[in-house]
Amino acid sequence: MRSTLILFLLLAACAKPPADNAASSPDGAAVETVAEKTVPESPASLAGSQWQLVAFESMDDATGTQTPDNPGQYTMQLNADGSVNMQLNCNRANGTWTSTPSADGQTGQFSFGPLASTKALCPPPSMDEQITAQSQYITGYSLKNGHLYLSLMADGGIYEWQPKSSPNMPKDPELESAILKAAPDYTKAMLQDMGETGMARYATGKVDLNNDGQPEIFVYLMGSIFCGTGGCTLQLYQSDNGNYTLLGEFGLSRTPVIVSAASNKGWRDFWRLQSGGGRPSEYVRYRYNGNQYVEAERIAGTQAPDGELALPESTDFNGGIELLPQ
């Protein structure tokens, strides 16, 4: 896996000399980097995207792989206007970014302009100084299984980022009404009996599965009534101008949920992760048969299939929307 990804990135990126004029703030305050207003067009899959750090994999065996204690403390927003905002442990950094995609749109050249950052001394372990120092040496990117890989020049290492948590759409009363209709056991009486431990939350992900211009909605329900040791309840809704129809419900599901490029009868396939009951984890593929989604295939859960990420692996209860029973 590592050697394949390294080769992938090296072929995609052309090394450029690092900038030697990194901006700094003498008083430790966040400073916006002033750059030319003309910004190269960036691929839509990156422009406006938000990420959180998963790991840095050094090609030096002595360094190995570094993972942050709390990925949510290391976030990056690639704005459509060519600016970048980072939260790095106890510091912030601002600057610019550009990219040039290759023909496949999944790889290409990538570079940061000078980053201006605050200078707070974060308690160890911290990766903030490393990230700001190495940003000028990043030359390429790759998108794989919903994750973003940024590679350093001269085979120096790879930063792996995953989509930032909270993929949720705004709270929608009509969607919540449909969710509660499909979950009649989730009531105020049940919540009174169980107390706070019975409260449920949900996360949402939007993907247009049938190419009608209106996205379908994946709903991942979390809480004691919707979850077991093998996972939680996944629902899929069809959206029609604010009206929601339940297309399917899939128990004991885990994230990520990935939508495939393959389709059947005009609807795209999707994968969900399943584990528990003493069985090894598996990705389960669902295909539309003209009436409903049915199971079509199972593969080992060790490697996520290719496709569009509907719900990230980082989906969790704390980041969900509170669901109040009727």
Derived from helix and strand composition plus strand pairing, the structural class reads mainly beta
Question: What is the fold-level CATH name, i.e. the topology of the largest domain?
Answer: Lipocalin
Q: In which range does the helix fraction lie?
A: 10-25%
CATH class of the largest domain: Mainly Beta
Give the H and E element order.
HEEEEEEEHEEEHHEEEEEEEEEE
**Can you count the beta strands?**
20
Number of domains: 2
- Overall average residue pLDDT: 83
The CATH architecture assignment of the largest domain turns out to be Beta Barrel
Large-scale geometry:
globular
**Computed Rg:** 22 Å
Q: Count of DSSP helices?
A: 4
Which percent range describes the beta-strand content? Answer: 35-45%
Could you name the ranges where pLDDT drops below 50 across 5 or more consecutive residues?
A: 1-44
Question: In angstroms, what separates the terminal alpha carbons?
Answer: 48 Å
- Name the quaternary structure: single chain
Largest sheet descriptor:
10 strands, antiparallel
